[in-house]
Amino acid sequence: MKERGLLIVLSGPSGVGKGTVRQAIFSQEDTKFEYSISVTTRSPREGEVNGVDYFFKTREEFEQMIADNKLLEWAEYVGNYYGTPVDYVEQTLQDGKDVFLEIEVQGALQVRNAFPEGLFIFLAPPSLSELKNRIVTRGTETDALIENRMKAAKAEIEMMDAYDYVVENDNVETACDKIKAIVLAEHLKRERVAPRYKKMLEVE
Amino acid sequence: MKERGLLIVLSGPSGVGKGTVRQAIFSQEDTKFEYSISVTTRSPREGEVNGVDYFFKTREEFEQMIADNKLLEWAEYVGNYYGTPVDYVEQTLQDGKDVFLEIEVQGALQVRNAFPEGLFIFLAPPSLSELKNRIVTRGTETDALIENRMKAAKAEIEMMDAYDYVVENDNVETACDKIKAIVLAEHLKRERVAPRYKKMLEVE
């Protein structure tokens, strides 16, 4: 039996650059994660291949998947459904491969319920760290603007609580390196490694 | 107040190459760990500087440190005492620096009692993984030899239980990369990062 893969969930506030970081990770040759292919009801764009870019479904099929609990998480955007098929994720993990999901915060919370053992990484906006400077140098911005930003920042920081790790997206390359370090470290945890050695000795 | 540093403890069975890996890590320019300077009763060798290579002490001074609980761990080898001074480690952690300890398994267990929040990394001999092959290809080695190796392997695997991570020393450079990934990931844990953000917002 193969060692089960890791479920890696990258999420964070909208506009933080999740997609850019995900693309950068998958453009690196040494990346061994499997990208989780989403299910969608939107029409394929030119060049998009079913089962590669997306699993394309009708609304009826998608709603049946919802009813059958076949989606790890799903949402509706501008009239189309998008979701993560649980069977694909489960099968890939069983094959011993790490699955990489890049999703919205609401979706991540749904995934956390189904896969609490997943690796939940919060991508934080660099503006969070800059906030202090902006507050200190008040006067360059209006009070209302700063107050809005403070409210948003508080909401973003509260979101973090559901995650295992926080990576600031101040630089795409650095963010990728950090995400890969997190996944590597997770594979080296004693709870994962020791049973492998113990199993080895049973060969006797 | 600075964020407290991490205590990194690298240990493993004797002969596994802990010293080589430690030297390789500290020869890398981007390494930001502070090496924990040991206390010893042995005489300084040519070129060794007190407070840099070791803290050199008399036997009486060392025994006083033991009595005063000033040592995180200590042992006696070929007539000389060696130990880790708790004040130096504590002060360096408080300064926000990561402290790196490379010690024997017995010492690591002592440190774990005093600093359970430390990062305990077990360096595993690559021979452990080769064991399976050696058992499968029996005949090339005597049964007694294999049995001895099996016993040693079982003891080594049991040692792992006190550690957080296991890194196989199949290649010094890879082992260094893994250790650094573990430390980086640890710094990105939400429990460490979120309070920093929360503190930032208190500036209001």
TrEMBL record, chains A, B:
Pfam family, one: Guanylate_kin
Cellular-component GO terms for this entry: cytosol
Keywords linked to the UniProt accession: ATP-binding, Cytoplasm, Kinase, Nucleotide-binding, Transferase
Major localisation: cytoplasm
GO MF annotation list: ATP binding; GMP kinase activity
Residues noted as binding ATP in the record, renumbered to the chain: G12, P13, S14, G15, V16, G17, K18, G19
The keyword Amino-acid biosynthesis belongs to this UniProt entry's keyword annotation: no
Top class in the EC scheme: transferase
Cross-referenced NCBIfam families: guanyl_kin
Name listed for the protein in its UniProt record: Guanylate kinase
The encoding gene: gmk
